[in-house]
Design a protein that fits this description.
Layout lengths: L1 H35 L20 E2 L6 E2 L10
Antiparallel strand pairs: 1-2
Bound molecules: zinc ion.
Zinc ion binds next to loops.
Length: 76
């Protein structure tokens, strides 16, 4: 009887330890993945944005959303 209780406690502790270890490994793995630049969790998909992964900025003159690396049509 007492052995069963001890075994149960041991099993719970072992599972808890394993979970904490896995979560720590996932945390470190996430940092590594972030460093490699593969994942972009902070950028949700934008509606109507079929313009690759470029952050669109509004043109200061006409207000149209344009690629910041390119010039707006109104400035040419
Ligand atoms: Zn413009």
């Amino acid at each position: 009887m007492i052995n069963k209780i001890l075994f149960t406690i041991f099993a719970i502790v072992a599972i808890w330890k394993a979970f904490s270890l896995i979560s720590r490994l996932q945390k470190e793995g996430g940092i590594l993945a972030k460093g490699s630049g593969r994942q972009e969790p902070s950028q949700p998909p934008k509606a109507g944005g079929d313009t690759k992964a470029v952050e669109m900025v509004p043109c200061p003159r006409c207000g149209a959303y344009i690629d910041p690396r390119e010039r707006c049509n109104c400035r040419t």
